[in-house]
Specification:
The protein has 181 residues and is mainly beta. Helix content is 12%, strand content 39%. The chain contains three helices and 13 strands. The strands form four sheets. The protein has a five-stranded antiparallel β-sheet with strand order 12-11-10-9-13, with no helix packed on it. Strands 2-5-1-6 form a four-stranded antiparallel β-sheet, with helices on one face. A hairpin with an 8-residue loop joins strand 9 and strand 10. The two termini are 29 Å apart.
Length: 181
């Protein structure tokens, strides 16, 4: 149910729901239990603490998941009352639909377990944009690949290039037109 390519026929569209902090998976399970068609893309994040590394499943879009709704038929207000959900993203008094094709495009690159697959191979010299974290939106160049999950990026700041080790899943190729690819 959660991996269909597009919402069922009718007036269904995809909507973004904001979750409570770090509660995306819980909100997803609660919405699924109520019979809502949902999409919750995930990724593996490596956490390092006290010289130990641990892989953890996290949301690809921290704080958000997607719900397919027909606003004329579904009881969409109940989404806002679901445990783990803060609220649907609204435009005035009604939920704001995600632009058509965005969720469907993401689903194409999602495996059967809900993990968003990487569609690009990064290599030294590639220009990248940091996707999240305290360096989000910064631009840099890959200096080297450090194992399977880390890259060393030369971040462009302070009129220079600062070397930084970043989780590979937190960077995306960047073209000079200003858009991440």
């Amino acid at each position: 149910m959660s991996h269909s390519k597009r919402p069922e026929k009718g007036g269904k569209r995809w909507f973004a729901a904001a979750s409570l902090p770090n509660r995306e998976a819980f909100a997803y399970s609660q919405l699924e239990r109520q019979g809502f068609e949902t999409f919750f893309p995930k990724r593996i994040r490596t956490i390092r603490h006290a010289r130990k590394s641990m892989d953890r499943v996290v949301s690809y879009f921290p704080g958000y998941l997607f719900v397919a709704l027909d606003l004329e038929v579904d009881r969409w207000r109940s989404v806002n009352g679901t445990y783990g959900v803060r609220s649907l993203i609204m435009e005035g008094e009604r939920p704001l639909p995600v632009p058509e094709g965005v969720v469907e495009s993401l689903q194409v690159f999602t495996d059967e377990k809900g993990f968003l697959k990487r569609v690009e191979d990064l290599k030294p010299g590639d220009r990248v944009k940091v996707q999240n974290g305290h360096m989000a939106d910064m631009i840099g160049q890959i200096d080297r690949l450090d194992g399977k999950n880390r890259v060393r990026v030369l971040i462009e700041m302070l009129h220079g290039r600062i070397p930084t080790i970043i989780d590979r899943n937190n960077v995306a190729k960047h073209n000079d037109s200003g858009a991440a690819t």
